[in-house]
Amino acid sequence: MGKSGVFPATSDCPWLSLGAAQTVIEQQTEDPPGVAFSDPGGAGGPLQVTGTQEARKEDRMALLFRLRPQTKQLLEYKSIIDANEEKTPEQIIQEKQIEAKVEDLQNKIEEVKIALEIKSLALSKIQLSAELKNDLEKINTGNSVLMDTMKEVLMLNKSVMKLQQESWKLEENLLDIRKKGFQLKQASESKLLEIQTEKNKQKEELASMENSDKIKTMKQSLQREIQIATVIQHVFQNLILGSKVNWAVDPALRETLLELEKDLTMI
């Protein structure tokens, strides 16, 4: 384990650290069981919060601050490798996947920070409202208007909490959609890599066929046949020209002579 207590970040295998960071964030950003808001007094009773939530909130914030320098360190490793290695199609696809994972980690860190701030603000509102209500009950004031106002404030706080929970659910759905899109992107990149690999394999097979003994023998046989046919062409040309026949006035003879002028190596 590294000093951060989350995952190791070494120069030998920075990408494994990246995957471990993503797993830890997904586990840590879930709401822990047993931490919930309770209203034991009914609709108008004081609101209470379990005692472990403050400690868990501090642990999450500490986790975020530990993950930020490690994410920067992974980016530095990636820059060093990019500068020292020649990129292959496999490395390019792997780098794109790493960049997407780093971006996903950064987005999750920001989302967790925002969610913690929202929860902390809502918790402060509820605690303040509960304390004010308790103080007003102790004072035993007869101002019913103020009490009604406080009850209305508490109801509004409950409505705000409900809306925030719905917003969190929508954010979770959005994260699921992003994950599915990322998975589809990975699948398409893998398919492209398979296609490129298959093309390279076909090229290698074609090159090996061209260099095979059988192909060389066929080429040599074809070359000999072309040479024989060329000799026959020259013989026929000499026969026609040596006979002193006026081949220009005979269409068939003229066409035959023109055909004999063709270069068989160009066919």
TrEMBL record:
Keywords: Centromere, Chromosome, Coiled coil, Kinetochore, Nucleus
Segments crossing the lipid bilayer: none
Main location as per UniProt: nucleus
One Gene Ontology biological process: kinetochore assembly
Listed InterPro entries: CENP-H, CENP-H_C
UniProt xrefs under Pfam families: CENP-H
Record's GO cellular component terms: kinetochore; nucleus
Highest rank taxon of the organism: Eukaryota
Cellular compartment(s): Chromosome, Centromere, Kinetochore; Nucleus
Coiled coil ranges: 95-122, 160-212
Record-level Gene Ontology MF annotations: kinetochore binding
Residues covered by the Centromere protein H C-terminal domain: 63-261
Region Disordered, residue ranges: 31-54
Family assignment from sequence similarity: Belongs to the CENP-H/MCM16 family.
Protein name, per record: Centromere protein H
Gene source species: Heterocephalus glaber (Naked mole rat)
